[in-house]
Predict the 3D structure of the following.
Amino acid sequence: MRERFWEHYSLGELNAKEWEALCDGCGQCCLVRETEGNQVTVYSIACELLDIENSRCSDYENRLKTVPSCHKLTPENVPRYNWLPESCSYRRIHRGEKLPAWHPLLAGDRKRMRKKGITICRSAVPSSQVPRRKRDQHIIKVKAI
Ligand code: SF4
């Protein structure tokens, strides 16, 4: 990886290793979403593959096959995905913003972001615990797309 690549290159200029390293591992994009008409609703419900304690996908390699609604982020779709959290590193770099001090690339690990509640480990609930009729109780945000 190139030194402090996040300060010098756009999303489209990153190599595969840098692209993966840019993800802070918050897990917020792994929460259940529903798109209806021109709006997307995000719930505090974890995707079935999400390891909540570690805020990590438990089958990252096969996620796109296993979960049809999972999206692979690319330099092209990040600008359109306004349901990504404001803190998302891809979103921030796309907007020309700096990475926050708690980002693992700067902090060295994910302890600070866990402490700050950026990761979903304290807020997400497993999908198996939420019947569909009760989903509305777990709405985090509704965004026009
Ligand atoms: S929201 Fe962005 S930074 Fe957080 S896990 Fe998803 S892709 Fe990575």
